[in-house]
Amino acid sequence: MQPIVSIANLSKTYASGFEALKGVDLDIRPGEIFALLGPNGAGKTTLISIVCGLVTATAGSVSIGGNDIIKAYRKARQLVGLVPQELTTEPFETVIAAMRLSRGLFGLKPDPEKIETILRQLSLWDKKGAKTVTLSGGMKRRLMIAKALAHEPRVLFLDEPTAGVDVELRRDMWDLVRGLRDTGVTIILTTHYIEEAEQMADRVGVIRKGELILVEDKAELMHKLGKKQVSLHLNQRLDAVPPALMKHDLELAQDGCELIYTYDTNADRTGITALLTDLSEAGIRFHDLQTQKSTLEDIFVSLVSERP
Predict the structure, then answer these.
(1) pLDDT exceeds 80 at position 246
(2) C-alpha 134: how far from its chain's center?
């Protein structure tokens, strides 16, 4: 399957000498939700801005639907919708006028039915005559998405789409993004809410200091890098981990009332049986046991905090 977005050896160095991107290679599959994760300043917004034609790369190439973003700019840009972090709306423009303008900017004929479909999809049809200044922050965020969809793009970039919205609206927007994917739109998402990526993404990319350090199917990433923890709630408090248990690399928590054992989910043996045997021989008793699996956030933090 041919990628819908293909990025090769992409680099960006600003006039100050700052290297925002360093030789990034990435292919985005048609119809997937791809989450691009990274700490502030990692290069996420720079990468999106180059692909969308807002920033010029220092080196490398990008094509969208087979169209080079420099040599075939208009064709490439026609295929892309962008929802930036900032809420950039004209305060005294009505919702429907904003949609008509966004469609017209790409040279498309008016299509009232298409505009109505998009606005209904985003629960904005009842606000079609309202001026954007009267909309709530969540409604303005929805309008930004609607405007990005007005010209019927095949690829939609969402840069922190749920920043500043409440939990209920965030979940509504997750459903919306899944619905867009189901219609064939490819979604590239950046987010600080790792739960968002874990809930929605088909694949995950992690960028750190301008370098793409990992691209993996989400399920495979969780399987390969995920770990499990066993928490043992002790009958008696410990001041320190006994020497006989040091080989298990245990962590003492809850003021000495809990022992935490972490193990690799892919290892041939978990080591739990040996741990329980050693606990018994050491005379340590516990009244409860809980297990917990790594989240995508745990994996992300471990990846970006590693030394380069």
Answers:
(1) yes
(2) 30
Q: What are phi and psi of 211, to 5 degrees?
A: -115, 135
Rounded distance, CA 56 to CA 21, Å?
A: 12
At residue 297 the predicted structure's pLDDT band, cuts being 50, 70 and 90, is low
Average pLDDT over residues 9-31: 95
Query: Residue 294: its pLDDT value, please?
Result: 59
CB 121 within 8 A of CB 176: yes
What does the alpha-carbon distance between residue 51 and residue 54 come to, in Å, rounded to a whole number?
Answer: 8
> Does domain 5-222 match CATH 3.30.1020.10?
no
Q: What is the pLDDT of residues 98-110, one digit of tens each?
A: 999 999 999 888 8
Q: Give me the sheet containing 203-208, strands edge to edge.
A: 80-83, 155-159, 186-190, 33-37, 203-208, 211-217
Residue 240's closest CA among 222, 224, 223, 253? 253
CATH fold label, 226-304:
Alpha-Beta Plaits (3.30.70)
* Residue 300, token pair as written in the block: 């992300």
d(C-alpha 112, C-alpha 259), whole Å: 63
Domain limits, the chain: 5-222, 226-304
- CA-nearest of 219, 69, 217, 42 to 155 is 69
Contact status, residue 258 vs residue 307, Cβ threshold 8 Å: no
Strands 80-83, 5-13: pairing kind: unpaired
Tell me the per-residue pLDDT of 156-208, one tens digit each, with 9 for 90 and over.
999 887 766 667 777 777 888 888 888 889 999 887 767 777 778 899 888 88
Over the range 283-298, which residues count as b (16 or more CB within 10 Å of their CB) and which as e? ebebeeeeeeebebeb
Per residue in 22-44, pLDDT (tens digit) is 999 999 999 999 999 888 888 99
Residues in the chain, how many? 308
